[in-house]
Amino acid sequence: MYNWNWAILWSPSPDGSTPFYATLLIGLGWTLIVGLSAWIVALSVGSVVGIARTFKSGILASLASGYVEVMRSIPLIVQMFLWFYVAPDLLPDRWANEIKAWDRYNVVAAILCLGLFTSARIAEQLRAGIQSIPTGQSYAARALGMVEAQTYRIVLIPVAVRRVLPALTNEFVNIIKNSSVAFTIAVVELMASTRAMQETTFQVFEAFTASTIIYLTVNLIVVKGMTALERRLEVPGYSRPSR
Amino acid sequence: MDFDFDVLRRAWPYMLQGFWFTLKLTAIAAVGGAILGTVLAMARLSHFKVLSNVVGAYVNAVRSIPLLLVIFWFYFLVPYIAAWLTGSKTPVEISPLTSCIITFVMFEACYFCEIMRAGIQSIPPGQTAAGRALGMGYWTLMGQIVIPQAFRNMLPIMLSQTIVLFQDVSLVSVLSIKDFFGAADFVAKRDGRPHEMYLAVAVVYLISCIALSRLVRRLNKRIAIIR
């Protein structure tokens, strides 16, 4: 009762001469642009917040813990809409109007939103990683005359980063998956181009199958890449117990 | 930017309805997902290679694609499956609520499956061996010994997963379903007041999720004492 028509992937799409499979791949391109840029934002903000989360007390520690709590308590789609519809109006009118007139603001909003959303998760992973290191190590660093910044830079961070790499792989996969939410603010990434193909051709399941395969492939590449990175960074005799 | 909080006064009965929908869907999906997830976990650990491979492939596939894609998949697929099950010639029409319930139970079951699998594997094999020695069959062994302990060990993780689910439900708004966010989004676009509506939704989610995670933390402490 459902008429399969795989040839649809090679037939031209209405928006120009490109076939549908190319439409999907262009969508994938935007998924990767948004995902990778957001990943950079997430790693940089997440490292700072994660380190601040390990401070025993002080204003930075409270700010960091509030930040994480807020970021983890509001659904991604709501945050996406806040960045896209509300954030520009927090700026002076002149800038707000310029931003709203700019047709690529949705991509920037998606990157910022996804990056900060993921940064809270990375911060928590990093905090757990740092706190899993026996306190004896930071005492030893102190005893050797290191100041706090040196203790973090030379002793704690290098070990913590290696310990959280598997968790980071997971977050990397999540950021690619979550970038699909950007389609709700009209970023034409893979989810959006899949929907466009489905709505113009009514070949629902071909479109979904193709995009499922693309997502699976990207995930596989991410996981393989991160595992290779893990192996490269491994310090002999100082890794997680091997399975 | 000017704020008109009157829109919230006008919209709140509508948003309350949406919030109720979100709660309902979260509860059904959490309970249904936990039950189906446990069954899937047992299947994944079963000695029937075909069964465990098929379930493993399904669980991994669903967990590697975006939830939005899962929502669209089921939204379009369920009418065909229903037609196939009932032997009807045309796709069966399914209400949005039913479609959401099926989607989220099927989706959440994959995550609960992985949690329960870890839970089942955390039970020392000596217990299974002891059960076998007492002459218990597979189902008695699972039902009386392994699953109850696995469930209790994994309850904290399952509860935090449920808070994630509570937030994930907001994505059904892409099907024009009026969950809490969908309802607010509808009013925001109808009345042209996105600032007030989206901020209000964010604040309500923030308060509910913080309250829920405090609750989970307290519950975990109580469970820890019993254990």
Strand content of chain A: under 5%
* Rough outline of chain B: flat
Extract low-pLDDT stretches of chain A. Answer: none
The main β sheet of chain A shows up as:
none
Assess the beta-strand content of chain B as a share of residues: under 5%
Q: What is the 3D form of chain A?
A: flat
Topology-level CATH name of chain A: MetI-like fold
CATH architecture of chain A: Orthogonal Bundle
Order of helices and strands of chain A: HHHHHHHHH
Percentage of residues in helical conformation of chain B: over 70%
Explained architecture:
The complex is a heterodimer of chains A (243) and B (227). Chain A is mainly α and 243 residues long. Chain A has one domain (22-187, 213-233): MetI-like (MetI-like fold), CATH 1.10.3720.10. Helices cover 73% and strands 0% of the residues of chain A. The model of chain A has no long low-confidence stretch (mean pLDDT 91). Chain B has helices at residues 6-44, 49-64, 67-86, 96-121, 125-133, 138-168, 180-191, 194-226. Helices cover 82% and strands 0% of the residues of chain B. Chain B has 227 residues and is an all-alpha fold. Chain B has 8 helices and no strands. The model of chain B has no long low-confidence stretch (mean pLDDT 91). Chain B has one domain (6-226): MetI-like (MetI-like fold, Orthogonal Bundle). Chain A binds chain B through residues 1-2, 69-70, 72-79, 81-82, 85-86, 89-90, 173, 177-181, 183-184, 191, 194-195, 198, 204-205, 208, 211-212, 215-216, 219, and chain B through 1, 61, 64-69, 72-73, 76-77, 80, 83, 89-91, 167-168, 170-171, 173-174, 181, 185, 188, 194-195, 198-199, 201-202, 205-206, 208-210, 213.
